[in-house]
Amino acid sequence: MAQSSVEGMGHDKKKEVIRIERESVIPVMKPKLIMTLANLIKHSSDRVEFLKLCKRIEYTIRAWYLLQFEDMMQLYSLFDPVSGAQKLEHERLPPGEIDELEQNFLTYLFEVMKKSNFKIATQDEIDIAHSGQYLLNLPITVNESKLDKVLLRKYFEEHPQNNLPDFFDKYIIFRRGIGLDQTTDFFIMEKVDMLIARFWAYLLRKTGLEKILSSWSKRRHRKDPKKGDENNSETYQGDVYERIRLEKLPLSFGNLLNKTTIQEPTFDRIIVVYRPASSSSKKKERGIFVKHFKTIPMADMEIVLPEKKNPGLTPMDWVKFLGSAIVGLVAVVSSLEMSTANLRVIGAILSTVLGYCIKTYFTFQQNLVAYQNLITQSMYDKQLDSGKATLLHLCDDVIQQEVKEVILSFFILMEQGKATRQELDKLCEEILKEEFGETCNFDVDDAIEKLEKLGIVTKDVISRYQCVGLKRANEIIGTTTEELVVKAKQGCATP
After folding, report:
1. Which residue has the higher pLDDT, 209 or 415?
2. Which of 117, 300, 372, 424 could form a disulfide with 419 if both were Cys (CB 3.0 to 4.6 A apart)?
3. So what's the pLDDT on residue 80?
């Protein structure tokens, strides 16, 4: 869920803010979390038992997910864009069975995404992202004819979800984590474009065309009436991110001539899932692409889109061209109507108009080079991995998050005694803030489910939870296979 608004600051200044619901991610590294919690335990014997329990919790949770992850990886081997086609050909499976297997893979994948606290970018978030510009100043669109429209549509028909983006049948964007990116530069050409855009907006207001365009834009805007601006303030508490962009820059010589710092919220992690369209009617495309990116500015989200079209001139560029042509034509006609028409004057006018058009064209070429550099940088610096590597990363990420949730909730129950779900949720978030300086929307339901599955918590008649003692918890889980392997290695190493 996302919101955008403008809030006042001081007397005249205003700031544009974006409010985004945080995910249930514990940002603290697992070793740091465990050691910090262990150091809060007074008695050394309890500390030793706690560290042993942490290891057993992790080993057990890994074992729970092992078979599920193996099934997912085995299925993906059939749809890997690099080698999947050869394996499918070798297996000689009927098309209907392949369709079923690829849907099974998507089911595994989306479940892992959910467990790893990735969320599907909603249409609201996409609209907010597209409402501004950051470093990317060209209109980027997707060549939809090059993308398959059956795979994801079939999945969401069987697993319907609310507020899916308009492009859900062609590709899906998962996002997790919010950050901020800043860039400082003179932005000379961008500021010139800003001045022209503001002048054009002024003309639209004076001519009345602004109202017509505004009403058309409102008809296109989708908004869930149940998710208006009166959202619960607690949902968005601490989730306000300021967007500083050139379009909102106050007009002054200082702002236009000096360096300017712009700022844009980023998605810390983005994963894009899609399938290319089949190149021929005889052989159906079966490869499923899974690409993983980091720190992508919201306004520049287009750089992660698949099958991007080569960008063309922006609407403002066309305005410049048409405006220059009209002004030049009027000037030439006026000169010709004069009794003493001067060919030099006409030539000067035409040269000026032509020069401005050439300047606009080269500005576009400069933006195109900047766009290509940005795409190249994204591929090298911002793309973490793809395909199998992304899936392996997700599998490990799921385990790390689940382990941290269980350990933290057990520690709170061990220290605080009995607690309801709401109390446990609040206490876990408070200790993360106090001990680690991190804000997190703790997933208490998932943590309690795992604790109950491990058998190390009990619930009384009024729905309060209580953990068993440390020694008893270790006895319930029992010695894990990993511990036996470690002991065996130590025995072999002993002379």
Report:
1. 415
2. 424
3. 95
Mean pLDDT within 132-151: 86
Q: Which two tokens stand for residue 331?
A: 């000037």
Q: Is there a contact between 289 and 274 (Cβ–Cβ < 8 Å)?
A: yes
Residue type, 265: P
Alpha helices (runs of H) in 116-243, residue ranges in sequence order: 123-130, 151-158, 188-207, 209-220, 233-236
Q: Residue range 353-366: average pLDDT?
A: 68
In 186-331 the beta strands, taken as DSSP E runs, fall at 240-243, 260-274, 289-297
Q: Which of 192-196, 327-331, 425-429, 466-470 has the lowest mean pLDDT?
A: 327-331
CA distances from 391 to 40, 108, 111, 205, 289 (A): 35, 11, 12, 51, 11
Distances (CA, A) of 184 to 71, 138, 193, 244, 263: 48, 19, 18, 11, 9
The pTM of the full predicted model, rounded to 2 decimals, is 0.79
Q: In angstroms, rounded to a whole number, what is the distance separating the alpha carbons of residues 231 and 124?
A: 14
Rounded Cα distance, 276 and 145, in Å: 9
Neighbours of 253 (CB within 10 A): 7
In what order do the strands lie in the sheet containing 240-243? 2-9, 13-20, 240-243
Q: What's the N-to-C CA distance of the chain in angstroms?
A: 61
Taking only the tens place, the pLDDT of each residue in 89-113 is 898 899 999 999 999 999 999 999 9
CA dihedral 108, 110, 112, 113 (to 10 degrees): 160
Q: How far apart are CA 123 and CA 120, in angstroms?
A: 9
Question: How many angstroms separate the CA atoms of 327 and 321, rounded?
Answer: 10
Count of CB atoms situated within 10 Å of the CB of 110 = 19
Angle (CA) 128-193-184 rounded to 5° is 70
pLDDT confidence tier of residue 266, bands split at 50, 70 and 90: very high
Cα–Cα–Cα angle for 30, 34, 38, rounded to 5 degrees: 170
> Which tokens go with 155?
């999945």
